[in-house]
Amino acid sequence: MGEFLRARRETLKPQDVGLPEYGRRRVKGLRREEVAMLAGMSSDYYVRLEQGRESSPSAQVAEAVARALSLDEEATEHLHRLIQPPARRRDTADDLVSPHLLQLMDSWTDVPAFVLGPALDILAANAMATALHEGFAAADNLARMVFCDPEGREFHQDWERAAHSCVAELRAAYGHDPDSPRINRLADELSSASPAFADLWARHDVKSKTQEGKHLRHPRVGDLHIQFSAFTVNGAPHQQLVVYQAEPASPTAVAFQRLRSSAEQETARTLHNSDAI
Length: 277
Description:
Shape: elongated
Radius of gyration: 22 Å
Helix content: 40-55%
Number of strands: 5
Strand content: 5-15%
Number of helices: 13
Low-confidence stretches: none
Distance between the termini: 56 Å
Largest sheet: 5 strands, antiparallel
Order of helices and strands: HHHHHHEEHHHHHHEEEH
């Protein structure tokens, strides 16, 4: 909680919250006493919050701090979860995808679809999604693909946005399960491998995957302007189904047709090799 509050405070300037700015400031972002004033509490109490010496503030205090730091709804919910961590999730097969969902995705031959775990691991993918990510050395984890594979910067035409989204989504998942060994291992791995990831992880931005557009560039079919949707999987709320779509009759729709042809050829080749064995 203290790290989150400090990171969010450091992103704000006095003018962002309606305060005057006089002279040269020696601190990054707002001062602690400024946040305390905006939240209507003593500076000493707010300092205890950031230092972790006040670990169980009331919901009213959390709301006051959220307003002072201009947190949006999702970041405010994240703060509440950090104050009152959710009950430790029972051991579940986070990587087990329902056979019915696998069958449904396989029937979608015109759109890429894949299932993500909470640490952005790709748990399952249909043929179109496999063809879409064929340029990566390993299409196993979205965050690792963005930060550690050179193809990431070629594939994501707005790499900065993709990088920010990946880390914010991981932070959101971390808030739901701060004891997750998988998320913590991945964050440590990527922080060591990528200074860009380490910098973004330290910001504590929070944003779940929802719906938005992406500009991708596939090594064989070229530019893709897609819309994606993410859905929570019933029966496995720790998983998300992600579907990429193209506008009808658009150049991306034509590129998807070429991608489908490639996927079908690869499937036929795999079946032929299997029969030969």
